[in-house]
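Anyone? Bumping this.
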Amino acid sequence: MFASRMAKTPKSFIREILKVTEDPRIISFAGGLPSPDLIDVPGITRAAGQVLAAEGKTALQYSTTEGYLPLRQFIANRYKKRLGLDISPEEILITNGSQQCLDLIGKVFIDKDDNIAIERPGYLGAIQAFSLYEPQFHPVILHEDGPDLSMLTDVLEKYRPKLFYGVPNSQNPSGITYSAERRREVAAVLKGTGTFFVEDDAYGELNFSGISLPSIREYLPGQTIITGSFSKILAPGMRLGWIVAPMDVMEQIIIAKQASDLHSNYLCQRIAYEYFSHTDLDSHIRTIRSTYGNRCRLMQDLIREQFPESIRCTRPEGGMFVWVTLPDGISSMDVFDEAIKEQVAVLPGKPFFIDGGGDNTLRINFSNSSEEKIREGIERLARVIRRLGIS
Amino acid sequence: MFASRMAKTPKSFIREILKVTEDPRIISFAGGLPSPDLIDVPGITRAAGQVLAAEGKTALQYSTTEGYLPLRQFIANRYKKRLGLDISPEEILITNGSQQCLDLIGKVFIDKDDNIAIERPGYLGAIQAFSLYEPQFHPVILHEDGPDLSMLTDVLEKYRPKLFYGVPNSQNPSGITYSAERRREVAAVLKGTGTFFVEDDAYGELNFSGISLPSIREYLPGQTIITGSFSKILAPGMRLGWIVAPMDVMEQIIIAKQASDLHSNYLCQRIAYEYFSHTDLDSHIRTIRSTYGNRCRLMQDLIREQFPESIRCTRPEGGMFVWVTLPDGISSMDVFDEAIKEQVAVLPGKPFFIDGGGDNTLRINFSNSSEEKIREGIERLARVIRRLGIS
């Protein structure tokens, strides 16, 4: 009855887990939500009132598929200021959150059994979105400084993938950031191949140091597609993201976007632009960086203090997640099950591995818990780990 | 470089035409916009203020894939009240406008070369959305009282299509409404086949008489998928629609929706629910019906008065469009080109015919023009028709 693609899409494991964690007594490190205290409700309320008062009839009417031009110009200007990138508003289309970018890329590029390369571990949302277009996935292992270059070279030569999908800044799930050198190397390896780099940059503004590393687009302008998100710096509930692509790709994306949902929520596009026009966004983002940086460092310190040395964890420089590797042979599903009994939730890492493995990995979110909850939650986790006899 | 599906998607002809009509001196009957004067800006402003004041942090955070439960309950209650249908909120998912329903249905059902049946002429948005999943389309001719039953029976027997897509109320583009009898007959023909009826009900609330005919779901509950839209009764710019499907289908739609964009704009879902909770929606819809009914009758009267008898036009009982058939051999593209010179725009009907034909048809929108503009626009069109020597 259903299309064959539906059988190939991984069951929504995170969805099921998040249901378990809805109990308010549970301290949840399982999700990936920004802190609600860092959403500027008064500022957004003011912007909404202003848009509806001044331009209500227009803001509530149908609009263009590409999105509100001043908002796209604002995004282009920010790329120039933050990364020195020259991007025209015509190369930018507003999406229904950055997840929709992945669906549009899948639609535009992927025929059944086409090859695509993806980091290992890889972002689950991308695995789900691309799976609906039935590609063959080829994993490229992620080290502390970025993708394994010889594995990437092999995959490119052997499979000539249409896309290589990666998250160079504070990757989900691992928290890893590509080094400046590795960015140049990845671009050099891709240059002249038929492979587009899909640079998912959901966390690019959330680097704790405030120092941005270059986008791959700087080295590969005609071969890079960037996806961006307002969910982490404005508000996820407004579902606003964007995609940046060279014009020949953008023409196809516009057709796919129109067929998918005509255009993104126009009222919220107008509110977002009005908000950014009257807000010191840099100052707001500094507050987010400092809050998340403190939570991240606290969580890492507590893990190193209270967990045995056999448990390793990454040292993220930004983003929202710490990635924990348990000793070989220990199942993170067992840790999840025991942790729920102690009313703390973590996310087993297995679904992020498209070729199996990762049974002993965990993703732990720090952005959505106060420092007090992080202290209490890590203590509970430490008890679970002792009880499981991990040493 | 691109997926093969992109080559199969019809060029966005309407998009190109609407660009031509952006000139404010042009009276445009080409688009499909609701009247901006019937968008309740003060009511929506009040609702937005209320939601942001009372629940801002929640309304701006991530939410569930299915959508805001009270809004889904509201939709279910309205089906009960308006059509006597028993639909549970679990059978309803909130989409990014009703166009997204068509994309989700394509994702969940259509494998490459699967057969699907569609009205002739058929809604262009559906043709575009489904084309991305590369089906074989089989047209079923639409008469004044609904689809041709023997053609439908033949298509079902010969091709066993997965879906039959139709718009029983005030179809786009033809304005045709299925008679009560034809609804029962269509359901009877479909019953027991493996074919789902996709009932696009974007205009169900816009019947001028206020008397609703039954949904096909009444006769085929397990075999009908309904798509609905708030664009015509609330505001298109909020991009809110919904899909109703039996639970086994809904489970697949939830997976497809999550992979596509996680969930629909939550802020606007909350604003819509708040708005409906404090608005006399029936009274608002009566105003819309009466305004559109007057515009539609005026347009038909003027067409019959000023156009030669050889030009036929449908008698819509609702919706937003009149459908005009020119004498054989007259090209509506010629009418379009000449009409633009007179600063009036109409939409040639050809793209609505998936198997060719329709060169002598035109779709004319009445919802987005005042009675004054309708008078002036039809006069200009009558001049064009005289100049082209149509008699």
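Late reply, but here is one note on the structure posted above: Chain B has two domains: 4-40+282-384, 63-277.
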